[in-house]
Known about the structure:
Blueprint: H1 2-26, E1 107-112, E2 117-118, E3 128-133, E4 137-138, E5 143-145, E6 150-159, E7 166-172, E8 175-182, E9 189-198, E10 203-208, E11 215-216, E12 224-233, H2 237-263, E13 348-353, E14 369-374, E15 378-379, E16 384-386, E17 391-401, E18 407-413, E19 416-423, E20 429-439, E21 444-449, E22 465-474
Antiparallel strand pairs: 1-3, 1-12, 2-11, 4-5, 5-10, 6-9, 6-12, 7-8, 7-10, 13-14, 13-22, 15-16, 16-21, 17-20, 17-22, 18-19, 18-21
Amino acid sequence: xxxxxAIQLGIICIIQAATQGDTTSCGGCCTAPAGIPGIPGSHGAxGxxxxxxxxxxxxxxGNQGLDGKDGLPGKIGPTGLPGAIGxxxxxxxxxxxxxxxxxxxxxxxxxxKTDPGRLPVSPIKYPLIITxxxxxxxxxxxxxxxxxxxxxxxxxxxxxxxxxxxxxxIMKNGQRILSSFESxxxxxxxxxxxxxxxxxxDEVWTEPLSTxxxxxxxxxNTYCSFSGFLLYATSIKxxxxxAIQLSIICIIQATxxxxxxxxxxxxxxxxAGIPGIPGSHGAxGAxGxxxxxxxxxxxxxxGNQGLDGRDGLPGKIGPIGLPGAIGxxxxxxxxxxxxxxxxxxxxxxxxxxETDPGRHPIGPMKYSxxxxxxxxxxxxxxxxxxxxxxxxxxxxxxxxxxxxxxxxxxIMKNGQRVVSAFESGSGYKSLGNMVLxxxxxxDEVWTEPLSxxxxxxxxxxxIYCTFSGFLLYATT
Length: 476
């Protein structure tokens, strides 16, 4: 390009010089024909930048931004409230057949084989142990201590020394239950029996009435003895169930009290976690279309904020609430099958006179005081025991006579005299007898004086007149 310009400039200079020489020499009178046209010049350089155009039309509003991202998971909810009370338990399964050996055992027999002489007014300490199943008789104290609640049979026999008086009593926890006495000449023997309902740690023993009635005698023939045994054990399952329920209630109450102190009752049911953090703003909308010629139009307005991000995932489940209160006790299971012995029905009684009956009329003796009446088969108003469960029963009586009065007491069954005992002569006297009877339902048994010549009875708060009975074997 520069070379072409140089050539053109050189040609122009030559033409001008020739023109100038010709003019000088001819004085301007000569003219020459026009030269050929020169080569066209190249395009000129670009012109300067034009004036700034008008502002372009405002761009359209950008599109709405995309939704923000999901928020973070919420925080763990608070601990839930304790659960509701549990549903009532299902009915228990049928009980297993009882074992013939399931009843606890307790039995003892103790005695004197030497002459005890005058004994102190305190528990009689029998030195000879004949039987002590369970070791519940304490030789050192002379007392039987109950370990298994239930119905017990106790019996004693005592012999007085020659021409001396004797009164022996059965004591329970310091209370005189019943007694038997003899006074007058010669050696005299007394005995009595009682049925007692005991609980754990009850104590039973024999004791002289006073220092005027404590002249005992024995030898190798063993005239003084004391025996007892458990007839029917009282089931402790019911007491155990109650104890367990009370313990559970105490635990629940203690737990509830502790929780109340810890949170002041501010806990509420667990809720979903708090919503997640809102998503970030959406991206700006796309720029509007380019305006007309001129500067690029102003930036369009920011698009609307994107929608909030969705709620974060629910927080993790709070810790499990405390257990609900214990549901109601289920229904009692069906009765287990009957066992051969200890599941038999129970029937036992001991009754007495605590006041002086005097001359008792001929007919059933209506004992006014009831010590024991398991099954309520002894009727205090009629004086009769009425059999409800067929089986073999043991019946025993002891009667005290008034001073110088004669006495004959009999055990009656359905109006028939079965056995009797007799005392006559001077002084106060005591007698007794025992029998085993096979009974069927509605059989009646009672005691009765023999006649109006042998009905001189005597008793007081020391209880000299008693009547007892119990079911030994039930008929299956």
